[in-house]
Amino acid sequence: MPRRLAPGLFALCVLFAPAAPLSAQDSHRGAPAAVDAGLVLPRTPADLAAGAQLFQVHCALCHGAKGEGGKGPTLAVPALPRAADDPALLRLIAQGIGGTEMPASKLGAAEIAQVAAFVRALGRLPVEPVPGDPARGAHLFATKGGCTACHTVAGRGGAFGPDLTRIGQRRSAGYLRRALLEPAADLPQSATPYRSDVSLPENFLFVRAVLRDGRTLAGVRLNEDAFSLQLREASGRIHSVFKADLAALHKDRGFSPMPAYGDLLAPAEIDDVVAFLVSLRRP
Ligand code: HEC
Ligand code: HEC
Where do the structural domains in the chain lie, given as residue ranges? Predict the structure, then answer.
């Protein structure tokens, strides 16, 4: 039974509204359920079983069947950085995290409370350790790996690939390992079909623009509208072209310009780089 929106929560919605085009889009399909900040999480075995089932259907795709993580971060940890307490967890599930792949939920308030209770139960399971040495990984990142050519961490590095400053908070260790071994396996993008088609920073799309004079510009799409396109070459140079000037425009969906590191780094070095990436989170 949805309760009335608490005044504090209402203020929060207003605060987040301009930064969250995704939630605005989602609201066409039904507004996120209101969550009462004072709600206590249900604890009966029946509620936990219902929560587990809802989690499999609505969350496991990104967070793993046991909350071990995947495209979304590991939830089987004692403290969630984004959800310090239960009201914060309920709000986060109901509203999603604006501007990220974490969607607003279409579940009702009682179901959200059951899923939240299940997420907290996952947090009581033992955490899987990540092998590897983060300090060695940081060194490899800047040297042999050549990662800084394309990625920024804490304001330093290239901008061809996504900013990795807080990547350990967004992705699980398993996902990060796969990103290194099979870069094309899971390109960062939204699950919303609408967003995979518009130009947002997390929707990486490799494009090749063939100009009428025969030259080809290849890089990551930054922006696109009906008449023009902006792309960033691997060198970092940004080009803006009018579509009328193009002989052809190829969109290489599913192609990753990032090298597969299984051939370039030893298995122990991959472990070190993964440990470094996992350590990149807000203190
Ligand atoms: C389409 C993928 C996707 C789905 C489906 C999804 N999540 Fe997420 N979730 C994410 C991502 C990605 C993040 C991290 C966002 C960021 O920080 O950039 C996240 C973050 C979170 C966080 C914050 C974790 C932290 O470290 O504090 C919680 C809690 C969470 N999700 C719970 C859920 C629950 C519960 C469901 C199901 C009702 C769900 N998510 C469904 C992708 C997803
Ligand atoms: C030639 C440029 C290039 C190099 C070099 C490169 N990357 Fe990438 N990387 C990209 C691009 C572009 C993407 C986004 C699209 C994709 O996955 O292909 C990406 C994606 C990623 C992702 C996934 C990010 C997410 O949000 O899902 C991780 C993690 C990553 N890179 C880590 C690394 C590490 C670690 C190295 C060095 C060992 C490295 N990259 C080297 C270009 C590069």
Answer: 7-122, 134-187+258-279, 206-252
Spans in the chain with pLDDT lower than 50: 1-34, 190-201
Among 23, 55, 62, which is best to mutate for testing ligand 1, by the most ligand atoms less than 8 A from CB?
Answer: 62
Task: Give the model confidence (pLDDT) of 205-230 as tens digits.
Answer: 889 999 999 999 999 888 888 899 99
Ligand that comes closest to the CA of residue 175: 2
Look at residue 49 and give its three-state secondary structure: helix
Mutate to test the pocket of ligand 2, among 150, 200, 220 (most ligand atoms within 8 A of CB): 150
DSSP string covering 138-191, please?
Answer: HHHHHTTT-GGGT-EETTEE-SSS---TTHHHHS-HHHHHHHHH-TTSS----S
Residues in the chain: 283
CATH code for the structural domain at 7-122 = 1.10.760.10
Ligand 2 center to residue 151 CA distance, Å? Answer: 7
Q: Which tens digits make up the pLDDT trace of 83-113?
A: 989 999 999 999 999 888 889 999 999 999 9
Assign domain 134-187+258-279 one CATH number from 2.60.120.10, 1.10.3210.10, 1.10.760.10, 3.40.50.620: 1.10.760.10
Which fold would CATH assign to domain 206-252? SH3 type barrels. (2.30.30)
Instruction: Note the pLDDT of residue 39.
Output: 64
- Whole-number Å distance, alpha carbon 72 to ligand 1 midpoint, is 5
How far away, in angstroms, is 139 Cα from ligand 2 center?
Answer: 16
Distance CA 205, CA 252 (A): 7
Ligand 2 centroid–CA 183 distance in Å is: 7
